[in-house]
Amino acid sequence: MKKSVFLGTIAVAGLAAGAVSAQTLDEVQARGELNCGVSTGLAGFSAPDSDGEWQGFDVAVCRAVAAAALGDPSAVNFVPTTGQTRFTALASGEVDMLARNTTWTFTRDVDLRFEFVGINYYDGQGFMIPRELGVTSAMELDGATVCIQTGTTTELNLADFFASNNMDYEPVPVETNAEAQQQYLAGACDVYTTDSSGLAATRATFEDPSAHVIMPEIISKEPLGPVVRHGDNEWGDLVRWVLVGLIAAEELGVTSDNVMELAEGTNNPSIERMLGNEGEFGPILGIDQDWMVNVISSVGNYGEIFEENIGEDTPIGLARGLNAQWTDGGLLYAWPFR
Amino acid sequence: MTSMTEPPAESFRLSQLIYDTRYRSMTIQVVAFILILLALFWLGRNIVSNLEDLGKDFDFGFLGSRAGYDINQRLIEYSNDSTHARAALVGILNTLLVAVLGCALATVLGVIAGVLRLSNNWIVARLMAVYVEGFRNIPLLLWIILIFAVMTEATPRPSDFRGDRPEASMILGDSVAITNRGVYIPNVFFTRSLGGNEMAEVTDSAEATVIASSSGLDWFVIILVFVASILGARAIGRWATAKQEATGIRPAGAFWMQVGTVVVPSVIVFLALGATLDFPGLRGFNFGGGIHLRNSLIALWLALALYTGAFIAEIVRAGILSVSKGQTEAAFALGLRPNRTMNLVILPQALRVIIPPLISHYLNLTKNSSLAIAVGYMDVRSTLGGITINQTGRELEGMLLLGLFYLVTSLVISGVMNIYNKSVMLKER
Ligand SMILES: N[C@@H](CCC(=O)N[C@@H](CS)C(=O)NCC(=O)O)C(=O)O
User: I want to staple B63 with a disulfide (CB 3.0 to 4.6 A). Which of A26, B36, B78, B85 is the partner?
Assistant: First the structure.
């Protein structure tokens, strides 16, 4: 990881001349492969399975973009990044996009010069603690030792939370989720704090998940979404509309099962436009006319991706909550394909 | 340049620049110099244009803004309201702390292992060989992670110390607790501090405890007194030697006067300041009170010291072996006892061989301390070169500052060691 920070810095600094001004889409198409930055391993979001295939909620976004841009959901080179290396990797051109639970903040959007294309998971920071400690509220954590991943919004929220509640804590900085999990299970910290989806995903991999409780308090807003570099609007548009397409497909009832059938023609003009039977949306984005057919047939719609990777029928068991469609009382609201 | 290129003007031709050995080296140097300048210029222009493309400027202003993150090990006052510059300073002090501790322990280990490896005792010599080869030939990172893993996995949790029948107990008369979060040792604080010492009663707990914090001023005075006493003791030593040379008899009790001069004033100052020990004890989730040596510090420190110590052992052994055996025999022939032979004859000569490579191992240790990242030790690489860069997006500025810090530190270390080297060098007259 150190190497990649360093190389990234050097690259940003001097050698990768014009990595940003070049058209990312052209590069990806010429390369025939999408370089997608994911996390180093978080069950349900992005982790290699037993065959070494990357699987997960964030991974599906990468695959969807690859399906749209290249027509092949497997043409992805997954680049594991930590909280600290992800931005350098993106800025230096090592990856074309990030799909790894990254919070949309002012600083990252404006000062760090990135472009958040949308939000694929509405989250908030929570705390996990062993049940045997008998703590029921985050307000009882005064003096606790807390494991946090460095280079995240988590560590800033944590500092604010404890300071504003006049409590003390001992931070134990860790690089990756795997490291945090190991420290937490060894008891080197009392509490693990990160995005609550991450806590649920981590807990699901424990030997005895029921021995750990997630505190009711959510101390921050963590809108997580895919990120691209600032300045290449065409590429940003593409990634944005793939994400919107995934969400819209769920709303419109387009699934991986019926997409082929619907692509033959329907009487719903919205679906007709999205699937490319009407208008020229694909070519306007610089890609195939049937891009959304490729996307949905390869990874499914947003709801399918959610249920398959992190939904209530998986060990991670996250409810849709804020991430339900607006029609179901959630915050997901796809902009019109028009 | 001009003075060197002064040719016999009448017969100078351009081709001489290449074919005439008097000028050729000059020509090559000038060409190389221009090429290097061009390369630097190219890199510099690339940086500027890439930063422009990214829409970033080059600005150190971020150092003055609020850091917003907490650091667990702080040698100076720091909170998340402090600036990034302060966070960098906290990191720098942590780096220096582990470097100084590491160099000290590595030297002690290295000298002992180096001397013992030459021992006539077969077992001892072999054991030292195992130590040296084991640590020299396995990457440092593995040792750091291994020691850290052992310290976190194999030691009891603070909660194991609780209850009527605790699974773990403190050692050394209940003064030291070894836990998976680090080692807690007693701290010294001063009830009659010279200032800056907050004496606060914890009112919300059943037994009021004094929050111990010893002010820097107290320690400064103590160190000052201690250094002064050592100088005094040396003066007494010189006086005794002068007397011995004049009269042939060393004044009785000179040694004990020296010991007294070193010990008594310091003890008096300690007592005058009301030094009291603050013992660690269980408070809430963790141990409180005392000094908390975190596992990250201990693991990094031990690994750096053991690893570098193995190299130093070899340097020491080589240094001793470089002094010819005739020197020892000559010293024995003059009737010098073995330990005086070592101190007066062998070591002064061996040091000349030992010091220069020792310097580079001190430098290595200091730079290797940036492997702190493996165990989450908050050194300057982790604060300035890690979190700060990540939160502000100032990679270039941060990395430049970081490089500058390591450069300056290394130059200072080698500067100081070179002065010491001069003092032990062969003085040619
Ligand atoms: N959303 C926060 C935190 C992101 C974060 O740290 N996520 C963790 C778990 S929720 C992660 O992805 N870890 C995987 C890894 O270690 O690479 C941010 O953007 O700063």
Answer: B85
pLDDT of A7 over the 50 cut:
no
Nearest to A9 among B69, B288, B395 (CB): B395
Task: Report the separation in Å between the CA atom of A176 and the middle of ligand 1, taken as the mean of its atom positions.
Answer: 8
Distance of CA B192 to CAs A242, B200, B214, B270, B380, Å? 69, 14, 10, 10, 35
Answer yes or no: is the C-beta of A101 below 6 A from any ligand 1 atom. yes
Q: For residue B83, list its beta bridge partners.
A: B66
Nearest ligand 1 atom to the CA of A151 is 20
Token representation of residue B2: 């001009």
- C-beta of A309 in contact with ligand 1 (< 6 A): no
What CA–CA distance (Å, rounded) separates A69 from A25? 7
**Which residue in B174, B420, B214, B178 sits closest to B292, CA to CA?**
B178
pTM: 0.82
CA distance B165 to chain A (A): 17
**Per-residue buried b or exposed e for B186-202, using 16+ beta carbons within 10 Å of the residue's own CB:** bbbbbeebeeebeeeee
Beta-strand (E) ranges in A82-186? Answer: 97-98, 114-116, 121-123, 125-130, 144-149, 169-174
pLDDT tens per residue across span A179-233: 999 999 988 899 999 999 999 999 999 999 999 999 989 999 999 999 999 989 9
- Cα dihedral B8/B11/B17/B22 (nearest 10): -40
Both tokens of B170, joined, read 């403190």
- List the Cα angle B6/B8/B12 in 5-degree steps: 95
Tokens of A217: 């308090």
Local structure of B236: helix, strand or coil: helix
> Is there a contact between B390 and A150 if contact means CB atoms under 8 Å apart?
yes
